[in-house]
């Protein structure tokens, strides 16, 4: 049976690629490969084209680091979003989660870790955009508390108000594993740091 699949070289390559996606096991990979390549080939081609287009067209925004169609994202270009609040997230995908809650009207900054963060750029941006409040929307954990302290230290001379999401968010659970309601509640009941 194993040899049979190996001989279907392209099918086997597809199954192996799908298996690399987190949470997709061997069985699901095979089922998906069958649907996409055999049962519903037009869907397979559509997905393949969409993935290709995303890889070519989507980049990280030069200002905030969120995903963007052009050099600067839609949020950074929107003057209505310049309300003096900046939300710092750890991953570009976390911007989707906060946007889905639909209540945050400010701008974002993605800080994946303190080694890669350009603080000169961030400080210039805070001054230029007249930011007054910085909200940390990190997964609650010891590491994020250390990162928050580190960032605050770098920004402390700017006289900003700092807060972070806390209540209702369990520790060490990534934000995309928290249900929408809990995340919305945590975001709205944020606490000072
Ligand atoms: Zn941006």
UniProtKB/TrEMBL annotation:
It comes from the Bacteria. Keywords: DNA damage, DNA recombination, DNA repair, Metal-binding, Zinc, Zinc-finger. GO terms for molecular function: DNA binding; zinc ion binding. Residues 84-170 form the Toprim domain. InterPro entries: DNA_Rcmb_RecR (IPR000093), Rcmb_RecR (IPR023627), Rcmb_RecR_Znf (IPR015967), TOPRIM_dom (IPR006171). A zinc finger (C4-type) spans 61-76. GO terms for biological process: DNA recombination; DNA repair. PANTHER family: RECOMBINATION PROTEIN RECR (PTHR30446:SF0). Belongs to the RecR family. May play a role in DNA repair. It seems to be involved in an RecBC-independent recombinational process of DNA repair. It may act with RecF and RecO. This is Recombination protein RecR.
């Amino acid at each position: 049976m194993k040899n049979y699949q190996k001989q279907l070289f392209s099918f086997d390559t597809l199954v192996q690629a799908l298996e690399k996606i987190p949470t997709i096991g061997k069985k699901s990979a095979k089922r998906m490969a069958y649907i996409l390549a055999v049962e519903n080939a037009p869907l397979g081609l559509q997905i393949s084209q969409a993935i290709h287009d995303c890889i070519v067209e989507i980049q990280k925004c030069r200002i905030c680091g969120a995903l963007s169609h052009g050099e600067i994202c839609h949020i950074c270009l929107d003057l209505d979003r310049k309300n003096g609040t900046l939300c710092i997230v750890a991953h570009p995908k976390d911007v989707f989660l906060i946007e889905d809650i639909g209540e945050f009207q400010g701008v974002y900054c993605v800080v994946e870790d303190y080694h890669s963060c350009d603080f000169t750029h961030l400080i210039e941006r805070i001054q230029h955009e007249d930011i007054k409040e910085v909200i940390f929307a990190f997964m609650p954990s010891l590491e994020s508390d250390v990162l928050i302290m580190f960032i605050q230290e770098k920004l402390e001379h700017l006289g900003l108000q700092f807060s972070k999401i806390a209540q209702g968010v369990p520790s060490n659970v990534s934000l995309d594993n928290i249900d929408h309601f809990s995340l919305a509640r945590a975001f709205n009941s944020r606490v000072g740091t």
